[in-house]
Design a protein that fits this description.
The structure holds 2 protein chains of 2 kinds.
Chain A: H1 7-26, H2 28-45, H3 55-73, H4 84-91, H5 104-109, H6 113-124, H7 129-136, H8 140-158
Helix pairs in contact in A: 1-2, 1-3, 1-6, 2-3, 3-7, 6-7, 6-8, 7-8
Chain B: H1 3-18, E1 24-29, E2 36-41, E3 44-49, H2 55-65, E4 70-72, H3 78-88, H4 106-116, E5 124-125, H5 126-132, H6 139-147, E6 160-161, H7 174-187
Parallel strand pairs in B: 1-4, 5-6
Antiparallel strand pairs in B: 1-2, 2-3
Classes of the chains: A mainly alpha, B alpha/beta.
């Protein structure tokens, strides 16, 4: 029999991860609103959740869907990877993420959304490629490509 | 947990309650016997965990048997905490908290509802409780209904003794049962 842990456990364990991911995805000032939407949606769906083996991945997936909704609501189209270069200017709203030490996250925040999301999911949330793909709603290959492009861009800027 | 995240969680709790998604709210409460766990649904108090009971186990049981939409929400339990404080101080003789009976069924629930009606400072026997629930011979079942009381203190199973006058059992330990009976004897007036 599968038994879901008390929802409080998810807050205790993963609230920080969700917040960090959302800061990367929508910026510091909007992260709190999207955090609310994420956890309300999760709480609503929770009792009917069938597979409780990866609750963290489930939450981060919801967080990313909500982040994408948030971008859409602001009039931005979802961003296919191939178009990334073209939309850099349109979407490059600078995000206020405090640099922990070397300014890396500032650079991450300035990446185009899909690359930014892939980099954040990989390094702030520590998700494997397959889960990044789920979260972004793309194939694992596309997720790997976004991550690669994001990292290449970062390396160039930091060198 | 960062401060920003804590504030976000605080906001989320309020939103969850407002959206009707907070199926079970729980909080800790101090008592002279140690920390209690109080849990409540929109229908009423559903569980009181005694100090010697395992908190994680109680929460998992609530998630499995009532709802996994279970959040720590101290402000939701202010009234319960206030009444219990006054009870332990000898100032409150009758709880005014609604009880959600979701965790007890059938004969057990009947026994517990009988227990809820035992006046402050009085005691009954397991035999009397069995008879009151319609089956005078089910003394053992009445005893086990007391033992599995989901909301001790508020449903005062400590007021039920053996026919011989012996204390019987108590989920919170016999010393606690004895102290509660002494407290009530002292404030019976």
């Amino acid at each position: 029999m599968h038994r879901l842990p008390p929802f409080q456990t998810l807050l205790d364990r993963y609230a920080n991860d969700v917040m960090a991911t959302l800061r990367g995805a929508v910026g510091r000032s909007d992260a709190d609103d999207v955090f609310q939407e994420t956890f309300i949606a999760a709480l609503r769906a929770y009792p009917s959740l069938k597979d409780d083996r990866n609750l963290r991945g489930w939450l981060l997936t919801i967080a990313h869907r909500k982040a994408i909704d948030h971008h859409r609501a602001r009039g931005r189209r979802p961003l296919p990877v191939a178009e990334v270069e073209a939309v850099v200017e349109a979407s490059a709203e600078p995000l206020e993420i405090p640099a922990p030490d070397d300014g890396v996250w500032e650079k991450v925040a300035a990446l185009p959304p899909k690359q930014r999301a892939a980099v954040t999911l990989r390094f702030a949330s520590d998700l494997p490629h397959a889960e990044i793909a789920t979260a972004l709603g793309c194939s694992p290959a596309a997720a790997r490509r976004s991550l690669h492009e994001g990292l290449t861009k970062l390396r160039k800027e930091l060198s | 947990m960062t401060t920003t995240t804590e504030r976000a969680i605080e906001r989320f709790r309020a939103a969850a309650a407002a959206e009707g998604l907070l199926d079970v709210a729980y909080a800790s409460a101090d008592s002279p016997f140690g920390t209690l766990l109080l849990a409540q649904t929109p229908r009423g108090l559903v569980r009181v965990g005694l100090p010697n009971q395992d908190r994680e186990e109680l929460l998992e049981e609530l998630a499995a048997k009532v709802s996994p939409r279970l959040l720590e929400a101290p402000s939701q339990l202010d009234e319960a905490r206030r009444e219990l404080d006054r009870y332990f101080a000898g100032e409150l003789r009758e709880f005014d908290l609604p009880v959600d009976w979701a965790l007890s069924h059938g004969f057990r629930q009947q026994v517990l509802q009988g227990i809820a009606a035992i006046p402050y400072g009085e005691t009954r026997t397991y035999t009397e409780m069995a008879a009151g629930a319609g089956n005078p011979r089910a003394v053992r079942a009445a005893g086990s209904a007391c033992g599995s009381n989901p909301t001790p203190l508020v449903v005062p199973c400590h007021r039920v003794l053996r026919l011989s006058g012996g204390l019987g059992g108590y989920a919170g330990g016999l010393a606690m049962k004895e102290s509660l009976l002494e407290l009530e004897a002292e404030h019976r007036g």
